[in-house]
Amino acid sequence: MAFRGARRLRRAARALVSCVWQCLVAAGAVQMAGETARADAARLLHAPPPGHPERLRPDVPLTALERSLLRDLGLVD
């Protein structure tokens, strides 16, 4: 024989599990959206866009500071 509130307890448990499931689905959707956005950004960021201050220009000589930094890094003799 089941106790008096079994039906109410079962309904509450089902509602709780449903809510937890919906939260997990939403969290998974957010996580997947972040992963696809990160993958798209990685493809696009192989070089700075045209006109960006960090874009390398072979026709402009390095400044004294840039030459000093390269020397400190050991990339230039």
Précis, in short:
Helices cover 64% and strands 0% of the residues. The protein has helices spanning 6-44, 64-73.
Keywords:
64% helix, mainly alpha, 77 residues
- The gross shape turns out to be rod-shaped
Count, helices: 2
Low-pLDDT windows of residues:
none
For the sheet with most strands, the description reads: none
Proportion of β residues?
A: under 5%
Structural class by sheet pairing and helices: mainly alpha
Number of DSSP-assigned strands: 0
How do the SSEs run, as a string of H and E?
HH
DSSP helix fraction: 55-70%
Average pLDDT metric: 77
Question: Gap between N and C termini, in Å?
Answer: 89 Å
- Calculate Rg over CA atoms: 29 Å
Pfam families: DUF6059
Signal peptide: 1-26
InterPro entries: DUF6059 (IPR045701)
Keywords: Signal
Please tell me about this protein's structure.
This protein has helices spanning 6-44, 64-73. With 77 residues, the chain is mostly helical. It has a domain at 1-45.
